[in-house]
Model the fold of this input.
Amino acid sequence: MLTARAVFGEIFGNDEAFRLFCSIAASGEAQGGWENGRIAALVPESYRDLAPKIARHGADEDKHGRIFNALLRKRGLEPVPVPVGTDYTMLLENAGLGLPHSQLRRGQKLTEDDIITYLAHSRVTEQRASEQMRALRKYAGSRPDIGRAIMMISDDEDNHLAYCHEELLRLASAGHADTIHRTLRATALAEIAIYRDVSKAVMAHLGRILGWPRPKSATLAAGIQAIYLYERLGGWRRMVSLRMPARRNALGGPRPARAGYT
Ligand SMILES: [Fe+2]
Ligand SMILES: [Fe+2]
Done:
């Protein structure tokens, strides 16, 4: 039967598919780490308090990249280049979402609007990361090595999402609510289309590696399109709401020590 659990089982059980899957994930995490590291360095004076949290956010994403690479190494695999069309982070940037890498490379201090753009982009993409990791947690549960790594990442992504909610709420109450809602809406509506395209591209590559028959690939592509329709028809709203999280100051304080990968 064609279930998410069976599909992930196939991916985890095949070296080539696993290699591509982890390479794509590691590359996205590393890009996120670099972006956050640059943003932390360029925070304007008036947002000084945010800098250590953004730096921690970046350090977490870098760690996630190392975790996916470590999963590859454990199986004696080397990462492969990320195919065009599967690079979620780059496609978001090309669509004008978040802060452009050219700006982050220039080294000029960010503005208040840039901080809102960064937090709104993170609010949307961390929701995606948090949901994806929760799903993976469910499907990788029977593989202790992968399951343990995913659990650690999943916990971090939940923290990142909580932090975005809290900081955006703080900025909204400081008078930026309209800009925040406008930016969140535009980011979410663009993200859902990019996520659909990337999901289809990733599945197409995996399908070729795993030798899936055409009807199976078509069914999976239709499933991805159905998710997009659900999101376009209102599911996107879950990515723009702001609620004070139960876990406050999730990125404040020292980074908790965890075994391995650090
Ligand atoms: Fe991450
Ligand atoms: Fe994250």
Q: What stands out?
A: The mean pLDDT is 95. The helical segments are 4-13, 15-42, 51-74, 88-94, 101-106, 112-139, 144-210, 214-232.
